[in-house]
Amino acid sequence: xxxxxxxxxxxxxxxxxxLTARIMFAGxxxxxxxxxxxxxxxxxxxxRLKPGDFLGTEKxxxxxxxxxxxxxxxxxxxxxxxxxxxxxxxKGGGARIAHGNxxxxxxALAVQLDLTGVTAAEIMDAQRAIETLGAELAAENAxxxxxxxxxxxxxxxxxxxxxxxxxxxxxxxxxLAVAEASHNRVLIVQLMSLExxxxxxxxxxxxxxxxxxxxxxxxxxxxxxxxxxxxxxxxLMDDHVKMIRARRVAEHGGxxxxxxxxxxxxxxxxxxxxx
Length: 275
Description:
- By secondary structure, this protein is mainly α.
- It is 72% helix and 4% strand.
- A three-stranded antiparallel sheet has the order 1-3-2.
- A hairpin with a 5-residue loop joins strand 2 (85-88) and strand 3 (94-97).
- It is elongated, with a radius of gyration of 27 Å.
């Protein structure tokens, strides 16, 4: 009996030691994996790596960084999740530095903004800064193709003015087309991201009369861009987005989070948000 009682704690101690060792190993593995990820990311920012460069297989990565296959595997999974590498399986497979995907970045940023709980006012203040500069640059840089796209969207919106769902979609497309005419990819992707968060589909305050007013503003903005009038385009867009900001913040009914307004709209609003 005494022998059994003495052995039991020893068995428990050994099990506890094994668990502790596994936890410590997992922690070291995670830490080493993070170091590999950081080194690859830093090499990318330092231009030592560029899109399409071949990093190699899991085995190659482990050898390069003097790490275990487990560490290399974890690092590759993280790099893939971050959109830094693309991994192909099978013969000739391995990891390559990914090519840029602005839409993926915009969606990821939008998700983080939503999870952070940014307010409607914060979003609209950022949108004002982005869109006013975008309009200014569009008036400087717009090509004939850019102008033609703006005119086409205006024609389609005019034809859809009685259908507020369709008009709203075309109105958002017009705003994005103005940003695209700036030919500044940073501004474009930022506006794409805010589109996901800040542009609810419905709103009880929208009316065909408001839609016609929006059409007038958009038409004048297209004229200023075509005339290559940066200061005029900036001023008009600034006034326009300030109007949108006031309406959007009011639509939230005191809520600080944009998704609350989206939820209320889905539950029974008959109008639409127009920008």
